[in-house]
Amino acid sequence: MEIIFGQNKKEQLEPVQAKVTGSIPAWLQGTLLRNGPGMHTVGESKYNHWFDGLALLHSFSIRDGEVFYRSKYLQSDTYIANIEANRIVVSEFGTMAYPDPCKNIFSKAFSYLSHTIPDFTDNCLINIMKCGEDFYATTETNYIRKIDPQTLETLEKVDYRKYVAVNLATSHPHYDEAGNVLNMGTSVVDKGRTKYVIFKIPATVPDSKKKGKSPVKHSEVFCSIPSRSLLSPSYYHSFGVTENYVVFLEQPFKLDILKMATAYMRGVSWASCMSFDREDKTYIHIIDQRTRKPVPTKFYTDPMVVFHHVNAYEEDGCVLFDVIAYEDSSLYQLFYLANLNKDFEEKSRLTSVPTLRRFAVPLHVDKDAEVGSNLVKVSSTTATALKEKDGHVYCQPEVLYEGLELPRINYAYNGKPYRYIFAAEVQWSPVPTKILKYDILTKSSLKWSEESCWPAEPLFVPTPGAKDEDDVPCRPSRDRGVQGPHHKSHCQLSIAYVPEISAFGRQTEDNQGSTVILRYTENLNY
Ligand SMILES: [Fe+2]
């Protein structure tokens, strides 16, 4: 495990052909892009946290049943500065770095001051975002890096702050059917008012506005929500959308701005300036996309930590939204490289299992409703929303499933009623060992696992023109190769094996090579 996590990964600049077993459907054509940490040491220096590693881009080009893999380090300013200095000189969230350790006391003092409002890293290692025809590697700072999805070349660096006032932004934007991007960020320095900013990046730029070609240059603020606390805004990793609303959780997992401003001088990382306040509440903001204003009722729930929203939709006057929630913030702590030793898989334990929770938020609160009454009238969930004396509404979720993370859905159902979640199963160990398909309607699940296999986030690709949300050609059975109820075809497990990958996927026992499982309908276990 230490080898997998802590080892610097080699680039595969020339495409290599994967060995495919099973058959890849003819309609599956395109490129799968993945992003993640690949380099954890530079020269003698080492990052503290796994999420700090330098971004390694991966692509799997799928054409006519063949798969070609390549990978390349993102040539960010951060990467280049580090490689040139042969040590880490740019700070990441969990690692504070000092560019000029030998400078005299006066220049050091100046340097400390200039880091009061830090210029964050452009090591965009979390996700890939599509804006119009452009692709960007993203992280959670104000910087994104354009990339060429074919060659994985790094192109221009874009600073969100030039277009919208955000210092931090999520790596999980939403897309509407036209391809417009909706994202959120936090502004900590704009006129002294800390706020959360929802912003839109258009899919296309009208000819009359084509000053610059990039749609990002035409970003516009959609709505902003003042932070409850000027000096300690919430951390968030994603948000939810329905057809007409945005769901934002202001959770008690917070950034301490004053501590962050002095972190450089104190020699501590920015991650150490985050804390979970288990005495506080989680506030639920519902923003009406038509008026661009938050719904005025104050909704809240118990303290929790959410990284991933799964989906959200409207039903019978309520916004229903599903999240993967933790009781505390222990997940981040587990991934410090010092913990990623050979005992990691066995000994590292979360203090709470990530649970799939469904919340129901009533959009219209009856003024005459009795205090203590449940305002949720949706029969499909046991989630409640209790009216309180002061008019606030206390929401309690329905727990749907315990032990999953990295959720994905059929994205055609984003913001709409839906039934299936594809995820990695995560119990007390933070290392996923199974892929899961969860059926919300029947509350049943299908799982796939294999010896020495630690799956990454699954990605659902529907057959073109598919009618069913899960679009599985046959229902998986305990018996291999048995035809499903619709008798459309035999189930198949198609595997593309790439010896050159050692970063993620289906790891072989000797840690040489990984596999991308393209379809996994055969070996699912109940
Ligand atoms: Fe994520």
TrEMBL record:
Biased segments, Basic and acidic residues type: 472-481
GO biological process, one term: retinal metabolic process
Region feature Disordered, mapped onto this chain: 462-487
Entry binding sites for Fe cation: 172, 237, 308
Cofactor field: Fe(2+)
Keywords, sorted A to Z: Iron, Metal-binding
Superkingdom, natural source: Eukaryota
Pfam family, one: RPE65
Gene Ontology molecular functions: beta-carotene 15,15'-dioxygenase activity; carotenoid dioxygenase activity; metal ion binding
Family per record: Belongs to the carotenoid oxygenase family.
Protein name from the UniProt record: Beta-carotene oxygenase 1
Origin species: Mus spicilegus (Mound-building mouse)
